[in-house]
Write a structure and sequence with these properties.
Number of strands: 5
Helix content: 40-55%
Mean pLDDT: 89
Oligomer: single chain
Low-confidence stretches: none
Number of domains: 2
Largest sheet: 3 strands, mixed
Amino acid sequence: MGKPLTPRQRSAFFRALNIACIELGHDTPEAREDYRKKVMREEAGVEHLALLNRTTDYDRVMKRFAADAGDFAAASRFAVADEARKAALIRICCAQVLQLKGYAPGSDDAAQYLAGIVEQARIPCGRDMLDSSFWLDCAPGHLQTLFQILDTYRRRLIRRNLDGRTARTFLSFDPSIRYALNASGGITIEYSSCAYADLPIRVNVVAA
């Protein structure tokens, strides 16, 4: 199970549930509760809110509420939310791999190195000469595979630059970490919640 819903997500959940119930004519507490459990069971395989994770489960349930309420614009947004989240993590993982190699994002060396990794997955990619950004076009169904490929490289580089015990501590992917190679050949690790706001790497989610 992933992380539980945030207070903001819980509020949005019950607001969307209420709108769907009004649209469907569920006007008693029992009918509303039966509908809630039915949607959660069918979309996420759980009936209790505490078991609903804040990412894929939440997106699927909210998409269902929106569709049942006739709000197809909102349903479409939730349908692609997981893809957008995976694309963002791929973008960050690309940057972390480059940091562990000592390459500056946007450089020729960085683009060539990333291309060598990404092309193993047969995903179109390249450097945009207009703004020096590195781009890649990935179908929704390939996003998880691409992330796993990049994460494997990231872990390999961490093991190469840190001793065994320290390496194990930092093997898990953390989107708030920035790596830097120091003068002794080791890795300096910093934490920043906005470390990747401006990054010359684009992940385009395209139709398969």
